[in-house]
Amino acid sequence: MSEQLQQNIAKAEGYLARFKNNTLGHYINGEWTLGSEGNTFDNTTPTDQSFLGKVVQGSEADVNAACDAAAAAAAEWAAMPGAARKKILHKLGDELEKRAEEIAMVESMDCGQPLRFMRQAAIRGAANFRFFADKAPEARNGLSLHQDQHTNYTVRNPIGPVAVITPWNTPFMLSTWKIAPALAAGCTVVHKPAELSPLTAAILAECAEAAGLPKGVWNMVNGFGTVVGKALTEHPAIKAVALVGDSATGKKIQAQTANTLKRLHLELGGKNPVIVFNDADFDRALDAVVFMIYSLNGQRCTSSSRLLIQSGIKDKFLAALKERVANLKVGHSLDPATEVGPLVHTGHYDKVTSYFDIAKQDGATVAVGGKSLRDEMGPGNYVTPTLFVEAANNMRIAQEEIFGPVLTAIEFDTEEQAIELANDTIYGLAGYIWTSNTGCAMRMADKVEAGMLWVNSENNRNLPSPFGGVKMSGIGRDGGDWSFDFYMETKNVCIAHDLHSVPVLGR
Ligand code: NAD
Predict the structure, then answer these.
(1) Which pLDDT tens digit goes with each residue over 86-135?
(2) Rounded CA separation 372/18 (Å)
(3) What's the 266 CA to ligand 1 centre distance in angstroms?
(4) Which of 24, 54, 107, 188 is most buried (most C-beta within 10 Å)?
(5) Which CATH class is domain 8-268+473-491?
(6) Catalytic residue selected from 95, 107, 234, 267
(7) Is the CB of residue 194 below 6 angstroms from any atom belonging to ligand 1?
(8) What is the pTM of this model?
(9) Atom 9 (ligand 1): residue with closest C-alpha?
(10) pLDDT tens-digit profile of 2-12?
């Protein structure tokens, strides 16, 4: 064990002690509570399955209390001038930055993401709050739409209390990405963090409290999707649900919210293609292909899990790729040298490793990896970064979201074939195109079915740009003003110039 890893483990132990020694509850109406029933579940770290603390299993009564608090606080928060909300949200950004190291270490231990990527989590979280804070004063602005004898104008009002339901893969960043625009728009929030990674959501609520958010504006209820998530999505006070999660969960939430007719934003799964043409910048494309599936343990919605490689460079590209994949450093998430950490949970580890056999049964070749590392590395959820070749797009490894450090490479000859393969999936979140031919890039960008396409780039993010998917990857967009459109209702006001004749009946 390196000295640096030992130091990091000691530091993380310090940050984690309070979670280990106290049951983590909910944050409702500005108070920490252990809830109505007192049932708990154990939270463990995927680095070695050791205990990280007890977490309260929320009940329907706890959800009701949180929704009541969010409803009671809604009018005052919505009426607060945008400039005042802006100030509080910037203060929240300051609080996150102050606790950046703690957030990074706790997140790494809770969900297994390597520290090298989590170091940015708080900084990116703070940036999310600052970006939407700056937009808060103008959030209500609308359009002026002129007619000959009338003028229409639109204004936006916060939709009301909203539910934010987040997954475990990058829990902290995704929570901030959803909650920041909701608060800036003037909505109150009930947040349900993923049961597999609840810790940084608690730190986030503490930062909100320290920033002076009024009671009831931010509520957080821990527990399971089937109980807490379900009750939250069915609660009549909740006007909109923002989910980041699995496509199956998105479908369930669509059904659960039907009775109360809620607005939904669903950011779901993906099986994103990275398409590398013969004329691509070889080295840059190789770097991006490796980064976009093996960073964040491949537990990333926008990961490029299908490599579509043109036949002219296939052999050379795959040879270079194999070398890079075999060279990836798997290790403890707190080791600064680690590139791929343990998978979040034993259930997810079982799912990912099951594809090693599925690939062989389907006739693909395991070119690199395809192994559990439990014998070598102990009880943590460690697997070898894996590359499947000689694969076809109809195989399960090309169709199903594995959500691990596992890449499936498929050969193509022509641009038309690349489009056909790229679109032959139920998903449509992201796509990546590597070519030096601008016309080809433009044609591909036009034809590939996805909410987001990157040309000659990995997953570069721009906060004002829209983020979201098509097909089974989701409904709706956030980013920039798209977020406000989701968290606000647009109202049209039509004013006559008193020039038109009003239709007369019964005179
Ligand atoms: P998940 O769908 O199992 O869980 C997500 C959240 O939904 C959790 O908080 C869970 O408790 C809750 N939930 C589960 N059932 C529910 C129900 N019936 N009602 C209400 N809430 C319920 O997803 P996960 O396994 O935590 O995360 C991985 C998935 O998230 C992957 O499919 C990944 O692609 C997706 N994801 C998508 C994006 C995106 O932006 N499109 C980003 C990150 C992750």
Answers:
(1) 999 999 999 999 999 999 999 999 999 999 999 999 999 999 999 999 99
(2) 32
(3) 9
(4) 188
(5) alpha beta
(6) 267
(7) yes
(8) 0.98
(9) 194
(10) 999 999 999 99
